[in-house]
Structure prediction request, 321 residues.
Amino acid sequence: MSGMTVYFSDYTIADEFDVEQEILGPAGLEIVRAQCSTEQDVLDTIAGVDPVAIVAQWVPITAAVIELCPNLKVLSRNGIGVDNIDLDCCRRRGIAVLNSPSYCIPEVADHALSLALALLRKLVVATDQVRAGEWGWGGLAPIPRLCELTFGVVGMGAIGRAVVQRARPFFKDVIGHDPYVKAVEIDGRPVAMVGLDELLARADVVDLHVPGTDETRHLLNAERFALMKPSAYVVNTSRGTVIDTDALVAALRAGQIAGAGLDVHEQEPLPMDHPLRRFPQVIITPHTAFYSVEAVDQLRAETVLNIVRFMAGEPPINRVV
Ligand SMILES: NC(=O)c1ccc[n+]([C@@H]2O[C@H](COP(=O)([O-])OP(=O)(O)OC[C@H]3O[C@@H](n4cnc5c(N)ncnc54)[C@H](O)[C@@H]3O)[C@@H](O)[C@H]2O)c1
Prediction:
């Protein structure tokens, strides 16, 4: 195969490759499409392709995969997180890693706040009760007044900040934690930044917006759940690895926390027999926080534009490595 191939390892956001073809074709880049679920699938399907570029969605792009691509120049992650890519290997090999950092900021922020509001107002519990023939608020008590509560944001990056803007009109206080951000001002107003333990102890909603890294793995574990109020909720739209799932199940069973809103999971799809599926006060969405019609249009275009620009020596939309 020619040296001008773009290999798509797994790409579930579009059936037709019309947009991708329109942007890559004129740049002389040919598409090879695989639909991998595992690293082994990638190893099997990339052998002999010799791509200059890889587009990766969820499957791991490991050193072993990169070794099979002697002419690889660039990896474009179609999304924000780059935790499925061996970044150290890319650095060593001088391979650029690009992403699309802003395509779904409003969507994920809306989704996180929606989960928080639905949990606090017990919308899903109420719906379950109505479906079961019950009526009235008795089975839902207690529900606190939102404007007397504290909303805590862990990770004050692009999405965390967008959540602060949305949460402020609803809650008494919006506080933040981010070891890499000292002071944050949003719309001219500072956000009170506190240590993680203080945030966990004070917040009625603990809302996670950190990257999936070794450092953030199991950031919320048994010890940290023990610091939270029994009336508090956890919301996670960041990465499943940020929560120790077994510890979350134990905390829910013990009544250490009130519930959780989870868009991301340590294992996706969440297994059918997983205990998290059975708690009425847990809302689960299938990693769809990013989704809107407009977000997907933007993501598709940016993922391939990133490659075209990089190959032409122009600045890409965003370079991580
Ligand atoms: N569910 C979805 O559909 C979806 C869509 C897009 C992004 N995401 C995920 O959302 C997360 C946030 O994305 P973003 O665009 O805001 O990223 P970002 O890089 O703009 O912000 C991340 C923030 O987390 C902070 N951080 C790093 N380590 C931390 C720690 N140990 N404790 C507290 N803060 C820490 C960083 O300093 C940074 O400010 C990422 O994990 C991303 O993969 C999920």
Residues 105-284 form a domain with the Rossmann fold fold (CATH 3.40.50.720). The pocket of nicotinamide-adenine-dinucleotide is lined by residues 80-81, 101, 104, 108, 154-160, 177-181, 209-212, 215-216, 237-239, 263-264, 287, 289-290 (CB under 6 Å). The chain has a mean pLDDT of 97. The CA atoms of residues 17 and 31 lie 9 Å apart.
